UniProtKB/TrEMBL annotation:
The lineage of its organism: Bacteria, Pseudomonadati, Pseudomonadota, Alphaproteobacteria, Hyphomicrobiales. The keyword Iron does not apply. Keywords: Cell membrane, Membrane, Transmembrane, Transmembrane helix. It is found in: Cell membrane. It comes from Nitratireductor kimnyeongensis. Pfam families: BPD_transp_2. The chain crosses the membrane at residues 24-42, 48-68, 75-98, 118-141, 148-164, 184-203, 234-255, 267-295, 307-327. This is Branched-chain amino acid ABC transporter permease.
Amino acid sequence: MQTSPQTTSVTETASAPATPRSGFVAAIVTVIAAAAAVWAAQQGLNSYLVTLLALLFINAALAVSLTLTNGLTGLFSLGHPAFMTIGAYVAAILTFSARRKGSMLPGLPDWLASTELSMFPALLIAGLVGGLVALAIGWAVLRLKGHYLAVATLGLIIVVQGLATNWDGITRGGAGLSGLPRHVNIWWALGFLVIVVAITWRIKYSSLGRAMMAVRENELAASCSGINAARLKILAFVIGAVMAAMAGALLAHLISVVTPKTYSVLLAFNIVVMVVIGGSGSITGAVVAATAITVLSEALRPVEESIGLYGMSQVIVALCLIVVLYLKPGGLFGSGEPAFVRRLFSGRKTQ
């Protein structure tokens, strides 16, 4: 009898015995190895490739955060770009030079116009604002299910873009905010990815994660067993939004600009494709798919420009999605993690 990917993800959390210390040591060694690789990349690669590597890390973090929201809890949210836009503008306004705010952003209140923060507190505030917005929106839209929720969160992107475009005194309208201080480098991106993966992994392999997956599999049965499904879905939605808002803030300060259309519906499509190809609920799959799609898109960009066939990379990404879903409907890794990854980082012996 075959076992479904979802069943596999539940049984893997019950594998024993557990040796958490070995998993923690493996995680530390992996982070040190990644830091060494980043240091080597800084020494041997040009600035464009180093920036591309930082972009890859942020994209992987976004895919993992959407895995937490959609993959573990079974929601179908497309709202990540909306929270990224909110986070990017909040952080940009807070880090923007106080001398330029008076002329460029005349609609700001005096206390905000005179405020100029460093990147770390601005990043935390951006995540907090994104989380509060998600909490307010979540109570309304999470009553919807399936494609109704997808349409509602898609509408959220349009609403946020409209506000950013028309709120001239605060956001400079369609021109956006350019010349942002380039506070973020590849080390910020790597650190953010590590934190997002660690939080998501910790949630997935905890009683909270098992409750989320129970809601995903059968919300009615989960509710009958005492699980507050509505509260769990709100929690997953808010955590994912906080991560997305912080990712938007980091990306804006990596490329030094943010406009109302920097984080668009197309980005929502790409992030969802990363999650679906990797396997909805698989952290490893999200990282692998984000890496592959980011590299593929950047590799095809010169080809698009040389032959004038713009959008070709998106067509190829869509074809890859169709092929993967045809061959492996559950994605590359289903909703679980590869056995060696699970054994390495969970310190558990697979059965």
